[in-house]
Design brief:
Layout lengths: L3 E5 L5 H9 L4 E5 L2 H10 L3 E9 L3 E2 L1 H9 L4 E9 L3 E4 L10 E4 L1 H6 L1 H7 L4 E4 L3 H9 L5 E5 L1 H7 L2 E5 L8 E8 L9 E8 L7 H11 L4 E8 L7 E8 L5 H10 L5 E9 L5
Parallel strand pairs: 1-2, 1-3, 7-8, 7-9
Antiparallel strand pairs: 3-4, 3-11, 5-11, 6-9, 6-10, 12-14, 12-15, 13-14
C-alpha cells in the first residue's frame, strides 16, 4: 500500500513543491495547518508529512518547533531544502497602480518587506494561512488586491504574474522536515535533531551540555530556544548535530547529557540534505 504524503496546503504551496521534490510518487493530501499535518501523521501509520521548519531570512517556524516538542511520537525521517522565489500575482483585470491590499503568508510578507515598502507603501498587508490560500483569497476579492506566492500557484489558479523573484534576498531558502513514525536508518551522512530542557535555571547549565558535544568533537549545525510556556524565562533548546543517533560517539554524548538535563528528546536521525 502506497503511503499518503500530507503537506501544508492547499495545492500550490511551497510545502507541496518540497513534497514533490522529496518523493513525487506518493499520494499527496493537503491539510490547512501545521498542527493538522502532524495530527494526520499521528493518526495514520500509512502517512508521512512535510512541514517548514526554518527559513534563511525569517528564521525558525515556531509552530513546527512546538509541534515536535509537544508530540514525542513524531519522528523526523528526512529534510528538504527548497530555494524560495516569490511572485506578485493579481487578477487579469487588476492594475498594479491600483493595488490596495496584499495577501500572503506572514513569513512571505516578511521576506518581501523591502519590496512591498518600495512598491506598495500604502497597501494593507493581510496575513493568510498559506501562500496558496493568499492567491485564492485574492482572486475572490472584489477589491484591488494582489498576492505573493509561488509561480506554480499562479498557474494552478489562473492568476497573472506581475513581478517575479520579489524576495529581498536572492539566497532565500526554506528547510522542510519529513514527519513519520520512525526516523531514517544510518546512511553515513546524517543529522540528528534533539530537544533538551532543564528543571531549574542555573548558571552554566547549557554550557555544560555544549561542552559535552565539544569534548566528543560533534559539530552542531543549529541551536535555538523555545519557551516552555510554563514560566517566564524557562526554555526548551532545540539542537541539530551531525551524525546518526546509532553512532557510538552520539550514543556516548547523549548518555553524558542525560544526567545534566531534565528531559532529552531525540526527534530523529535522517540523511543530511545535499544541494544539487
Amino acid at each position: 500500500m502506497s503511503k499518503n504524503f500530507v503537506y501544508l496546503g492547499p495545492e500550490g504551496t511551497f510545502t507541496e513543491e518540497a513534497a514533490i521534490l522529496y518523493d513525487s510518487s506518493l499520494n499527496r493530501i493537503s491539510e490547512p495547518t501545521i498542527l493538522r499535518v502532524g495530527q494526520a501523521v499521528i493518526e495514520n501509520k500509512q502517512s508521512i508529512g512535510i512541514i517548514p521548519i526554518e527559513n534563511s531570512l525569517e528564521g525558525p517556524v515556531t509552530y513546527s518547533q512546538d509541534l515536535l516538542i509537544n508530540n514525542p511520537t513524531l519522528s523526523i525521517e528526512g529534510e528538504v531544502i527548497l530555494p524560495i522565489n516569490h511572485y506578485l500575482i493579481t487578477k487579469p483585470s487588476t492594475s498594479i497602480k491600483e493595488i490596495e491590499y496584499v495577501y500572503s503568508h506572514p513569513q512571505s510578507l516578511g521576506q518581501c518587506k523591502n519590496y512591498l515598502q518600495t512598491h506598495f507603501p500604502e497597501a494593507e498587508q493581510i496575513a493568510s494561512l498559506s501562500n496558496a490560500t493568499a492567491v485564492t483569497t485574492m482572486l475572490n476579492d472584489t477589491r484591488n488586491s494582489a498576492a505573493i506566492g509561488p509561480q506554480r500557484t499562479a498557474d494552478i489558479y489562473n492568476g497573472v504574474i506581475r513581478d517575479s523573484k520579489i524576495q529581498d534576498q536572492d539566497n532565500n531558502e526554506t528547510r522542510f522536515i519529513i514527519l513519520s513514525h520512525s526516523d531514517h536508518k544510518f546512511t553515513g551522512n546524517d543529522k540528528t535533531s534533539i530537544c533538551i530542557s532543564f528543571k531549574e535555571d542555573k548558571p552554566g547549565s547549557l554550557y555544560e551540555v555544549l561542552g559535552v558535544f565539544a569534548a566528543e568533537s560533534i559539530n552542531l549545525t543549529k541551536i535555538e530556544s523555545r519557551p516552555t510556556k510554563e514560566i517566564l524565562g524557562r526554555y526548551h533548546f532545540l539542537i541539530d548535530c551531525l551524525g546518526h543517533r546509532e553512532d557510538q560517539v552520539l550514543k556516548t554524548c547523549f548518555a553524558k547529557i542525560e544526567p545534566l538535563v531534565s528531559k532529552l528528546t531525540i526527534f530523529g536521525s535522517y540523511p543530511k540534505h545535499e544541494a544539487s
